[in-house]
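R.M. (postdoc): so does anyone remember the format we settled on? I'll just put the structure tokens first.
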């Protein structure tokens, strides 16, 4: 039984003491592959069978589980949990204490605020014979406000914004603003009809 952590980390990476990259979660697990100039802070655990592009930055105690693919210039904040079998594009910021369940798809230039909860099980621990996890899909240039909740299978259309505290139960059309509980959608104000960008990634 070979359960030692294995990783392939490109040049310029900084792995702090107390971080684990390439956790062997099962016999025969592959390595974690991390691109150039990564910063992985203490307490973070990245499982094997994860592929990440250049310039990953994590906070402390982030968890990235197996079969997750992440692009370049991605920030994964403190205490973020990415449950595995997740696809994340490039230029993405996931702020602290957010939960990303299995089978979630996140595009590029996406912002996920602190304490966002995404779910993938419509009837938790019920109807197990029918259970099939389905996470949310966040298209490119989406912004999700703090403490928002996205229910299983919803699609947040390109360029849309979800307000802080909103509970999204249905798809959000592209370039819309979703607010309230349950969230209702309206056209995104003209002044916000722009692609996401940051002063630095």
């Amino acid at each position: 039984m070979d359960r030692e952590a294995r990783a392939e980390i490109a040049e310029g990476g900084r792995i702090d003491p107390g971080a684990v990259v390439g956790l062997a979660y099962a016999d025969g697990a592959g390595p974690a592959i991390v691109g150039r100039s990564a910063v992985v802070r203490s307490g973070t655990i990245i499982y094997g069978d994860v592929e990440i592009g250049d310039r990953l930055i994590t906070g402390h105690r982030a968890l990235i589980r197996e079969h997750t693919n992440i692009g370049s210039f991605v920030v994964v904040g403190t205490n973020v949990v990415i449950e595995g079998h997740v696809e994340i594009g490039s230029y993405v910021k996931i702020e602290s204490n957010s939960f990303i369940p299995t089978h979630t798809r996140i595009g590029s230039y996406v912002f996920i605020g602190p304490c966002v909860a995404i779910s993938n099980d419509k009837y938790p621990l019920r109807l197990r014979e029918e259970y099939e996890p389905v996470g949310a899909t966040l298209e490119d240039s989406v912004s999700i406000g703090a403490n928002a909740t996205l229910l299983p299978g919803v699609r947040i259309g390109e360029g849309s914004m979800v307000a802080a505290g909103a509970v999204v139960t249905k798809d959000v059309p592209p370039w819309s603003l979703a607010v309230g509980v349950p969230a209702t959608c309206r056209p995104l104000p003209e002044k916000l009809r722009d692609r996401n960008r940051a002063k630095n990634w």
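R.M.: ...and that's the designed sequence above, right after the tokens. Also worth knowing: Residues 1-78 form one domain. The chain has two domains: 1-78, 86-126+134-184.
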